[in-house]
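User: Here's a structure from my thesis project, written as structure tokens. My advisor, Dr. K., wants to see whether a designed sequence matches the one we expressed. Can you design one independently, without my sequence as a hint?
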């Protein structure tokens, strides 16, 4: 066969890049079922014509699921540890200020007035912890992700800035809730007012 007869000796092929990797398998199944594709598939074998690394994709999703489960467990554990630290710090603060609390009671200070500084202290500690974690995440985003992108070029690590902003707002909100809750539990247990 010569190049002049108009026939291309190379098979036609398409390289498809998916925006959503979770749709790789469903897209491959749709291609295999497509009547036009079945006509042009090499030797009529649609399974051999659609190549997408099934084993690698399923293994990658398995690893991703394990990482998600580990991350959820780690977040729960770190939340519990933060709660314990704030609770213990407030308890130590209450113990150190027992005389001041007794004097405030004697002069007629309300329970809310006595509790206010401890709640503020717990919330400030939680916000400080949230800001430190945001700083670490920003360092990772600016230093580590570009290096990962260079070394693993086929995988995109780019996320819109709005995802980071939502994550940072959630960190601060959860930190404030943990600070309030930890302070309230410590005061209820150790501050008898």
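Assistant: Designed independently from the structure alone:
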């Amino acid at each position: 066969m010569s190049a002049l007869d108009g026939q291309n000796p190379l098979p036609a092929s398409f390289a498809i890049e998916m925006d959503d990797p979770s749709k790789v398998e469903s897209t491959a199944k749709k291609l295999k079922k497509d009547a036009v594709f079945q006509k042009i598939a090499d030797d009529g074998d649609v399974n051999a014509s659609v190549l997408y690394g099934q084993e690698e994709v399923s293994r990658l999703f398995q690893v991703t699921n394990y990482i998600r489960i580990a991350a959820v467990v780690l977040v729960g554990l770190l939340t519990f540890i933060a709660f314990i630290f704030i609770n213990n710090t407030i308890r130590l603060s209450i113990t150190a200020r027992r005389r001041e609390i007794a004097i405030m009671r004697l002069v007629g200070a309300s329970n809310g007035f006595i509790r206010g500084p401890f709640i503020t202290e717990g919330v400030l500690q939680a916000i400080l912890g949230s800001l430190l974690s945001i700083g670490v995440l920003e360092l990772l985003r600016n230093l580590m992700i570009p290096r990962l992108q260079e070394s693993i070029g086929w995988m995109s690590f780019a996320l819109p800035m709005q995802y980071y902003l939502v994550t940072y707002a959630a960190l601060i909100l959860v930190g404030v809730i943990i600070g309030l809750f930890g302070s309230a539990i410590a005061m209820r247990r150790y501050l008898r007012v």
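When you compare it with your expressed construct, this may help: The chain has a mean pLDDT of 80.
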